[in-house]
Amino acid sequence: MASDHGGGLDRVTIWVHVLAGLLFLAWSAVFFYSLWRFRATRQESSENQEESLKHRWPMWVEVTVVAAEAVILIGLSIPLFSARLGETIEDDAVEVRIVAQQYAWNVHYPGPDGEFGTTEPSLVDEEINPVGLDRNDPRAADDLVLVNQLHLPVDRVAVLRMSSKDVIHGFSIVEMRVKRDVVPGSITTIAFRPTVTSEEMGRRLGLDDPSTYVYEIACAQLCGLGHSRMRGFLVVHDQESFEAWKSAEQEKQGEPVDDFWQ
């Protein structure tokens, strides 16, 4: 777990499993009791049978189950999910656009001006301009565009605005407890705060060279024959190295964004 909301999400998951386990035990007990109580070999008067059917405890069990599910859904799940939608952006948040396609994640950063340049479908060039960035737009002159490479600073909220060129994809980073469908024709948003740098996670995992560790961005929706190849990578930096990385990347803009083309 490497994000600030991960603990809350894990707790909701645990409570759901606890409730499901209790339900399984309770209804199993009801089932076996019913098999025994109303077995064919048991001789009982019709009056006693009618009296047995008047017990109200099954209703109270159902009411308790519904109440527990309402608490988990309304009290835990909905607030936790709503906080991830990124509708309110903090002042120091890092906003990134993600454009999914078969089979890649295109990553678009604003430049030092903090504004995204205009994009046009007619300008899409898979070799040097996969998001269709209009470089004649002054706001686009300093933008960064990468393929399958997402870089974020630690302890700052990341707001990802995601769209798709073709089919439904699923943006997923397991360690961050982040998963969101990316739907063509709309923009979906997810927000989270990374709390563990990639290098620190590498040390926790005992790697010989912790600096080589990267989080994997997987596609969680079957999106075509190349679905298994749709892998991206997230590097979480400290603030200083994040700024150094951005400066270095801006010097390389205009070159092919994917090693395939080099």
Keywords:
2 domains, Immunoglobulin-like, single chain, about 260 residues, alpha+beta, 5 helices
Task: Reconstruct the topology from this structure.
Layout: H1 6-37, H2 46-52, H3 57-82, E1 94-101, E2 104-109, E3 144-147, E4 149-153, E5 158-164, E6 169-173, E7 178-182, E8 188-192, H4 198-204, E9 215-219, E10 231-237, H5 239-250
Helix pairs in contact: 1-3
Describe the structure in your own words:
This protein is an alpha+beta fold and about 260 residues long. It folds into two domains: about 5-80; about 95-260, Cupredoxins -  blue copper proteins (Immunoglobulin-like, Sandwich). It has helices at about 5-35, 45-50, 55-80, 200-205, 240-250; strands at about 95-100, 105-110, 145, 150-155, 160-165, 170-175, 180, 190, 215-220, 230-235. The strands form two sheets. A five-stranded mixed beta sheet has the order 3-2-1-5-8. It has a five-stranded mixed beta sheet with strand order 4-10-9-6-7. α1 (about 5-35) runs antiparallel to α3. The radius of gyration is 26 Å and the shape is elongated. It starts with 5 loop residues before the first helix and ends in a 12-residue tail after the last helix.
